[in-house]
Amino acid sequence: MAEESLRLKFNAAAEHLPSLVPSLKPDQLLQFYAFYKQATVGKCNTSRPNWYAIEAKQKWDAWNSLGNMSSEEAMSKYIALLSEHVTDWDTLEKPTTNGWVSVSTMRDSDSDLEESEKDIFDRVKEGDIDKVKSSASTEDINLLDEEGLGLLHWAADRGNRDMVKCLLELGADINLKDSTGQTALHYACACGHKEVVEFLLQYSADVNVACNDGFLPFDIAVDDEIRNIIKK
């Protein structure tokens, strides 16, 4: 496959992936993440996250394990992996969502839920802004789920800037703490979601909120780029 043709197919595969996310297991998402980073950035070029950033370390380990794999090979493997799950993905209608998806919170899929069984947390994880707007209430906008996360934590975890904006406009507390004392800014920093970090800071997220273990968002930032944004 010629390089330009390969890149075009890879880009199309990356745009299709979000529609598949609900059916993927955490280890499968890590594979996609690693191939994507290797294809778009190259060899892992960041230091390993601190011990307490468990999810960020899993992503780093997956990427680093690819060593010197070429960008072309990584793109080919990404495409092949997607084809294992959806053989005819390249003949289907182009998804309306795009961008990379977070694998920071490793949990089983809720894809077997019926539409009527889904709550606002499911809508946030799926990135369904319209359903979130229609179902949100002042009572649940700052509630924590059974995993101890609020809606804003999930949106930041997923790297969904538009969902973060939606929730803040609906009254979400930008400095709401999860069950471990972390805010949405902690999640965005640990996951490396630059746009979400910048957006939260524009909305005056408090960089001095420490989690229960005493760590600030700066302390668990995945790389220097995120730390530099926090320091500005």
UniProtKB/TrEMBL annotation:
SUPFAM superfamilies tied to this protein: Acyl-CoA binding protein (SSF47027), Ankyrin repeat (SSF48403)
PROSITE patterns from the UniProt entry: ACB_2, ANK_REP_REGION, ANK_REPEAT
Keywords assigned: ANK repeat, Lipid-binding, Repeat
Chain positions of ANK repeats: 147-179, 180-212
Pfam family, one: ACBP
Keyword Repeat: yes
InterPro entries attached to this UniProt entry: Acyl-CoA-binding_protein, Acyl-CoA-binding_sf, Ankyrin_rpt, Ankyrin_rpt-contain_sf, FERM/acyl-CoA-bd_prot_sf
Keyword Repeat: yes
Highest taxon of source: Eukaryota
Transmembrane segments: none
Domain ACB: 6-91
Listed GO MF terms: fatty-acyl-CoA binding
SMART domains cross-referenced by the UniProt entry: ANK (SM00248)
Protein name in the entry: Acyl-CoA-binding domain-containing protein 6
